[in-house]
Amino acid sequence: MKNILQSIYFYLDTRFKLSDLIQFAKKKKVPEHKHSFWYYFGGICLFLFILQVLTGILLLLYYTPSVDSAHESIQFIMSQVKFGWLMRSVHSWSANILIAAIFIHMFSSFFLKAYRSPRELTWITGFFLLLIFLAFGFSGYLLPWNELSFFATRIGSDIAGTLPLIGNHIKTFILGGTDVTGATISRFFWLHIGILPLLTVMILGIHVLLVQILGMSKPIGIPENKVKEVPFFPNFILKDSLGWMLILALIGVLCVFFPWEIGQKADPFAATPIGIKPEWYFTFMFSTLKIIPAHIFSIEGEMIAIFGFMIGGLLWMLVPFLDRNAAKERRSPVFSFIGWVVLLYIVVMTAVTYLLPGL
Amino acid sequence: MKARKMRKIINLLSIFFLAISIFSLSLYAQKNSCVECHQELEDELLAPVEAFKIDIHQQFGLSCADCHGGNPAEEDIDLAKDKTFKGAPQRFRIPEFCASCHSDSRYMRRFNPRIRVDQLDIYWTSKHGQLLKKGDTKVALCTDCHAAHGIQAATHPKSWTFPWNIPQTCSRCHSDTNYMKDYKIPTKQWDDYKDSVHAHALFEKKDLSAPVCNDCHGNHGATPPEVTSIAYICRQCHPSAGELFSQSPHKKAFDEMELSECEACHGNHKILPPSDEMLGTGEKAVCIQCHEPDSEPYQIASRIKEKLDAFIKKIRHAESLLEQADRQGVEVSEPKFMLTEANSTLIFVRNLTHSFSLMEIEEKIEEGKKVVAEVTNAGEAALREAKFRKTGLIIATCFIFLLSIALFLKIKQITKKTPNESP
């Protein structure tokens, strides 16, 4: 038996240079300090993404992307397919936890200044991954073709339509027409299962590769003697696995006690229901658009807000190049302060959407 | 040359004077001295001017003189009240006063070709009209229901004759005990109607098809319906129940006893929402009004109620199973949809009780029971599924926690083994 295994290993090693990889893994060290806890969110994001892929593939076996059968196929998955309810609930819950984990991972990297040289590209690829997963969320939300998702998509695309000059073109491109129709569901479906996964694999590949090549960043200001190094295999990976197990248990509890709802089938001719809102991770932008004055210096308020978010996003992405102090391994309290303001803004505006729905 | 010039001047002057005359005439024609004078007056002499602003006649271009005669173009009151002036009609003449136009089909066609012109003829057949002919001027006339000067189309929500205003319009007289004391008829119809299922539909649900006074009593020809005609009135909206009743043994018995069909069990103005308690032999059952405890119909009534109650109980049980499963997160929209079929059968059975045929009712209930049984099975299966999920979760969570503990111990072990290295 041992001989057979050795033969297989030898066969693979000759072709894939496995021993080099094993040597690399054996030598790989991870810094350990008082902020190490936040490192594990990267691994959690990866684990949740794998869950997304697996459950998504299973859902694909039964889901039909058309106006007439999308909602019905979800109903079928939830009621008739063996463990269909589990697959869909795991997919939906893990998608939401994934977005939350990405935000935590991003803000922890921001506050630990992990973006500083030479890890600028790791930060930028991470930022793109955030955008991609938000697009995953936006496109996936419509696929069950229920009342909430239908009107939220309509409102979301209307917001895009308010942009000057290109707004209407963007809206038409997103929707495949002037309104949310069968063309939209078809586009969103292919975006969700084709284009976005392809982009994710490419960018995530670069992101993970960069993490492997450059290693994990050590926070600024922690004395060298307070930073220890532990082997990546097995120490770090075992701790990572422990986190994954706990997340899996949490998802299991959520799926059994709060299975993801199907909702009422969308009726394009019905009036927009009161209190319609997008998925929670878009609500801070949604609330901003709601409370911003109609006009500021005779410019449309909505347009200013959209440009604000676009410029804010761009600056956020370019932080590694703007924070010169961090690049020189010096503390940068101004950027930490900006980070806290942004975080507070997102939390408050998200809470406002749910606590003051009539705003 | 001079003569031609003169002719030109004369022509120009003629055109000028003609224009002046036409302008003056138009001003004269537009003048309405009735409004001008009455606007300066007070109370009941001012009221017509104010009310007429929203009057439908004004919207069709009619004015005071079209009803009251006279010459509104004259400023002088004596000249304005010329020989065509009719003034306000005496109360007993009002129906004919209005009918002078409203019964003239040729005249009415100019404004509304679809409007009826037989109101006066019908009015004389009404209780109001008959009493008026006898000289009783207290009875309702055109102006009592339509107003005198603020008349609005019956389709206007603020009109006195719009469906949700009619009960109040009629009750102005009919609920006034003092006003009605000479007629010796009840005055609590409006109070009764307010509690009825019809009033609920009209005022709460804003269902304009719900019957009001005139739907059962008529409007221009308003009379109390005769005992024999009540059933036909109800059948206007409830044909199925009426047809079942007509085919039932009760029809003959009611006719012989001269009982008003629907009204005998459901009442008249205070028609409450029908309940299952009206069936059977309980305290609130209407069957016991006529049937003796030892009679066969009494037994049938009791059986019908038993069957119906049992069916309802089964539906409620199935409903509660689905609700429990739904609360536990199991998808049950399909059995829920099936349950609507069972509820439809229940509605059908409730209507079928008007046939008083135990056999037909049993047959229909059996059909419904099959559907309920399917729903119940689906509900029980859904609950089993919920239990299975919870059990599965407990096993999976235990396994995950055991694995986590093992991982934790392993981590502890290798942390001890691996000396921490400083870079």
Question: Features of this protein?
Answer:
A: mainly alpha, two-stranded antiparallel sheet, two-stranded antiparallel ribbon, 15 helices, globular, B: 423 residues, mainly alpha, flat
How would you characterize the overall build of this protein?
The complex is a heterodimer of chains A (359) and B (423). Chain A has a domain at 36-278: Cytochrome Bc1 Complex, Chain C, CATH 1.20.810.10. Chain A is built from 15 helices and 4 strands. Chain A has helices at 2-16, 18-27, 40-60, 70-79, 84-111, 120-142, 147-161, 167-175, 182-214, 232-257, 283-291, 301-317, 319-322, 324-327, 333-355, and strands at 29-32, 228-231, 295-296, 299-300. In chain A, strands 1-2 form a two-stranded antiparallel ribbon. Chain B has a domain at 296-391. Chain B is 63% helix and 0% strand. With 423 residues, chain B is mainly alpha-helical. In chain B, helix 17 (227-235) crosses helix 18, helix 21 packs antiparallel against helix 22 (333-352) and helix 22 packs antiparallel against helix 23. Chain B is built from 23 helices and no strands. The A-B interface holds A 29, 31-32, 75, 78-79, 85-86, 224-225, 227-231, 234-235, 238-239, 241-242, 245-246, 248-249, 252-253, 256-259, 262 and B 329-334, 389-390, 392-393, 396-397, 400-401, 403-404, 407-408, 410-411, 414-415, 418, 420-423.
